[in-house]
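Issue: ligand-bound run for manganese (II) ion - logging full I/O for the record.

Environment: standard queue, default settings, no custom constraints.

Inputs:
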Amino acid sequence: NTTYNGPNVTDSSVIKQCPLIPPNLAGPLVVNKTPPELSVIEVKFTDVKPGGKGSPSNCKPRYKVAIIIPYRDRPQHLQTLLYNLHPMLLKQQIDYQIFIVEQEGNGPFNRAMLMNVGYVEALKEKTFDCFIFHDVDLLPEDDRNLYTCPEQPRHMSVAVDKFKYRLPYADLFGGVSAMSRGQFRLVNGFSNMFWGWGGEDDDMANRIKAKGLHISRYPPNIARYKMLSHRKEKANPRRYEYLKTGKKRFATDGLTNLKYDLIDKKKYKLYTWLLVKLTPPQ
Ligand code: UD2
Ligand code: MN
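Outputs:
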């Protein structure tokens, strides 16, 4: 049949923009800490596209979101996160891609620098509007916690079971947080000075305030997470010193002096993987 039936319904110009509030959200989620093997998940998640991408099929997404996950040697956590996160993101009707940014070698871990790398490398793929910086061990417990970027930077892991579902302090920005492309650029990204555990999130909170922005939050019954168990990393004893003197480096320490080598990059079914060698700032 070659009869003309009017405009093609798959033409993006006639597909409607997705509703502001996704229609199929359920609220509280059943968190699953014992996922099937990755190979099984890969087959099961038919709506996830290579590179760990998803987007709604029946409406035009409002946001292009990069999920940036700093990573080294936590395969169990990664498997569990992917198993829980993809289905929720698909329901949220956003256009997203998951990036695993893995630090090469066994020197002190630098979570902040990996975030900076994730931001820079993600933008080489697409002009993402929004960046979600996401610990590998945090599992969302409510799908109304939208993985999008509002007017102000948003701290998303407000209530974590490990902290008895209480925000430990008002300026906490660690765990899971969302910033728009413009906001992250404005604050010059994260500091590159924080090697080992701690401080990098508080320095980001300071950067946000210094630019006249503020941290926004969803209520704790929605911005809720379970943390997978792990041993405590060795804290960086210099973190207080760098925090205190951070302000004078905001303009020069961050995206502007970021140095790294991209050792490898692969698009697996459930995520885009970046292996990077970090170079300490001079
Ligand atoms: C807290 C923060 C975290 C960060 C950290 C201090 C919350 C809920 N989390 O996490 O965002 O500010 O303190 O640096 O507030 N990682 C690896 N391999 C490693 C070490 C770290 O993959 O060997 C990654 C992984 O994504 C992990 C994240 O870095 O979730 C934070 O490290 P953590 O989970 O050991 O630290 P934690 O739970 O104290
Ligand atoms: Mn943790």
